[in-house]
Each structure stands twice: as C-alpha cells, then as structure tokens.
Amino acid sequence: xxxxxxxxxxxxxxxxxxxxxxxxxxxxxxxxxxxxxxxxxxxxxxxxxxxxxxxxxxxxxxxxxxxxxxxxxxxxxxxxxxxxxxxxxxxxxxxxxxxxxxxxxxxxxxxxxxxxxxxxxxxxxxxxxxxxxxxxxxxxxxxxxxxxxxxxxxxxxxxxxxx
Length: 163
Prior knowledge:
By secondary structure, this protein is mainly alpha-helical. It is built from 7 helices and 3 strands. Strand 2 and strand 3 (101-105) form a beta hairpin. Helix 3 (45-57) packs across helix 5. The model has no long low-confidence stretch (mean pLDDT 88).
C-alpha cells in the first residue's frame, strides 16, 4: 500500500483474488435477491429449482433433476417430497424399468411453475437492466469461459493417478 491506496488503485490492474472477491460478493447479493423473489411466490430455492427443471425439461428422474440443479441427493428427495405433498408433482414408474421413478408436473404444478418462473425472470431482467446488451454478452462469455476452465481443472484433479 502506498499513500493509503491499494495496489489495485495505484496500478489500475485488477488482481485475480480481487476479481474473485467481487464475483463472490456479487453472487451472494444476486442469490439473496433471487431467493427473495422465489420466497415471495411461496417456494424455497430448492423447490423452485426442481419445478423449473421439470417445466423446461419435462419429466425427469430425481437424479436427473439433481444433476440439473446441483443439489445433494437427500436435499433433492426432500424437495420432491414437499412438492408432491403440495400436489405440484407426481412420481410415476416407467414402462422400461419399473424400479425407476420419474417425476412430472401436475396441471397445478405446471401453472405454479410457469407463474413463478415468469415472475422470477422478470425480477432478474429488472435487476440486470443496469447492464447494456453488450455488457451482458461480454459478462456471459467471460463467466462461461472461466467456469468451463474451472470445471475442467476440477475434472482433471479428481481423476485417479495412473501408476
């Protein structure tokens, strides 16, 4: 630090740790606002994520929903149980494998999921209107590039060492 200024301020360079911190804090605030929007519809984030996946992808197994919304198995099962109790989803056996269970939206579930998603999307559009179309494209491309690299590094680091 020189004259009370951080290194970032004196060099104009944004360091990777600084960028990570801004992304983390930004994500935290965006997530809280998204959760608030979803809670106003009477759902928790987990239940909303499952409904949204079923709305856009159609009937899925619990493990397929889990993969789409990045939740642990127990959390996903609990979410499906809550949604089933509310009459928003049903579990059905499949013709090809009677042991497998598919989750699908009921008519009420479709109505609730569509209304909640529309409101949620509108809230996010309003929030992100601070960015120009070009800024949104740049941010999207940058975050996707960074996320794909991080995912690849995770995949490689989890591979067993060959002897």
